Amino acid sequence: MVASAEGRKPKNTKVGHTGTLDPMATGLLVLLVGKEYTRRAAELTKLDKTYEVTMKLGETSTTADEEGEKTAVSDTVPQKEAVLGALHAFTGQMEQVPPAFSAMKVNGQRAYKLARAGKEVVLEARPVIIYRNELRSYEYPFAAFTSEVGSGTYIRSLVEDLGRALGTGAYMSDLRRTRIGDFSLADARKHDDPGLLASLREL
């Protein structure tokens, strides 16, 4: 919520969003301002999303990303054709297990809170759809690709699945969300844009 010039919060102005980003991720976040849009939050949260992903092969991570504790798995260097084949294999309708460090609830508690407390987290696979995975560059141990997915798909889980398929292990080393439905990062405004802040203060 943005305070007014007098230091007061705007009255009766609701603000929401259509899905947060992972702590280390960057990119597009759609904010919903006003009742007309916040009441559509559930609908807009279900929009398809596009990500630019970089994964590091040869290691796994306890959090499936750069922030976790790493474990070496293999020094095998997959051929580019093998990486392309794995990316193609993980497209379409499939079952995916969310990462332990996620906002999924287990017995009423967030999975990441249980995982951080050192407790075992068991999450069930659920249906997701991945429309395309397009390799952008590959220079071992890093492979960068674009992934277009349906709502509820976890990119960290996708990367872990790719690492298992390649026999090398993998974790997500970088993530940038570039599209949510028809909303594009190219058309977005930065959160500290003075013009954006001024517009919000006028609400």
Q: Which CATH class of the domain at 47-182? A: Alpha Beta
Intertermini distance: 11 Å
Tell me the radius of gyration.
Answer: 19 Å
CATH architecture name of the domain at 47-182: 2-Layer Sandwich
CATH topology of the domain at 47-182: Pseudouridine synthase
Overall mean pLDDT score?
83
Question: Secondary-structure element order, as H and E?
Answer: EEEHHEEEHEEEHEEHEEH
Q: Into which percentage range does the β-strand content fall? A: 25-35%
The largest sheet is: 7 strands, mixed
Structural class: alpha+beta
Please mark out the parts with pLDDT under 50 across 5 or more consecutive residues, or reply none.
1-7
The count of DSSP E runs of length 2 or more, i.e. the number of strands, is: 13
Q: What is the global morphology?
A: globular
The helix count comes to 6
- Going by CATH, the homologous superfamily of the domain at 47-182 would be Pseudouridine synthase
Helix content: 10-25%
Description:
- The chain is α+β, with helices and mostly antiparallel strands and 203 residues long.
- The protein has a domain at 47-182: 2-Layer Sandwich (Pseudouridine synthase), CATH 3.30.2350.10.
- The chain is built from six helices and 13 strands.
- Strands 2, 4, 7, 10, 11, 12 and 13 form a seven-stranded mixed beta sheet that branches. Strands 1-3 form a two-stranded antiparallel ribbon.
- β12 and β13 (183-184) form a beta hairpin.
- The N and C termini lie close together (11 Å).
- The relative contact order is 0.24.
- The model is unreliable at 1-7 (pLDDT under 50).
